Amino acid sequence: MNTQVVWLRNDLRIKDNPAVFYASQKGPISILVCATPDQWKAHQESAAKLGVRADLIQLVTQQAAELGIPVSVIDAHYFMDLPLLIMAFCRSVNSTHLWFNADTPLHERQRDDSVLTLLSQHDINTHVCPADLIVTGSVLSQQGSPFKVFTPFYKRWLQILSTQDRSPLPLPQRQGAPLIATKSILDWKEPYRDDLWPINQETITQRLWSFCHYKEAQYEDHRDIPSLPGTSTLSPYLSLGAIGPRELLFAIEYCHDQTERDWQSSIWLKELAWRDFYRQLMSHFDCLSMEKPFKPETEQITWQDPNHHFQAWCDGNTGFPIVDAAMRQLKQTGWMHNRLRMIAASFLTKLLFIDWRIGERYFMNHLIDGEFAANNGGWQWSASTGCDAVPYFRIFNPTRQSERFDSTGDFIRRFVPELTSLNNKSIHNPSETERLKLQYPMPIIDYKTARARAITRFSELKKNGSS
Question: Whole-model pTM above 0.85?
Fold first, then answer.
């Protein structure tokens, strides 16, 4: 029987994987992973994410071996190297069928088109399953156009979701005796905080179910408080597809049924819909993959040069405790709480008035869970350059954000330990005397002046008829 080759990319799992499942219905499968570290680094993939990716490849190899499924890792540099290498691999295992799940960014789509074109010329059939989203297929308006605002997208998204099959896809059947899982030598593997994000299936599954059982019901109240363990912390696994979207849905539905709640009212589900929204936008608008703003008129904005203020932001030495705590969390763990991502991004783009693309790249270079579409969408939202962006005149006051979401200063104390001795009020904005005594920097900007500058710049853009 003809071997079915399954090409895994950012969907590094065996269970609930459409390409794996449907290929296994046609015959024995052989899994292929193509390592392109130079391409990943060119896309600003962080060292931490490279480390997670390497360990997930080993995990997939082990899981597949238990089912008698071989996994091969071929080394390349860039996407352009892959068509010939994949064709050669298919021939080496006597396969005329290649399966994979679609991707959404432009470079990835171009890569897939190149593979499809070459293989079709050499009588190798390519089977493309829908992208790894919660709602499969495009979510379009009644006019057949992509949504540019989240709220109507979400309403339509929920309608489609309620009618589609939401059951997780099972593991493929065992196709032979267990294999010896050979450990690939991945020279590009980097260290990461594996104490925070261990790579084993038990941890990933337990983290999902523990969150849905014990924290999801309070998610709306706790998700914005960085000192609380109120989020799922699944994002590093989700970013590389180590857990499937239908598994998330199943856990949400099951736990809501147990407590007689409507699963469609889940705020966590709504946050996952944002992830789909940004990915689908990227598939419809190529400009988002080309360092271009969604609102082209905002290209006329003259941003400030990334001077010493930018370096202070990177190092967590801005003199605004909540911003500094956020940036130090990123450096120390490779992860940042979502509310803090908004605060840090607003500070860079609106108050320092530095180009959002510089911040976008910095985050991608450091985030263990960096996803191109979500990161791009978040930064353009903060900079008021994207679709469904925050209005330009809405600018986060970092001190007020701190007082609201870290009222007792617990999170600040964790990552800005020099401020530990301050009381719960002054820790959000220490006095000059306290700063000098504790060797904590003065604010690098005056908030009111910086806010006024941003509003003036955007207002001038609007007056010129460009927005």
Answer: yes
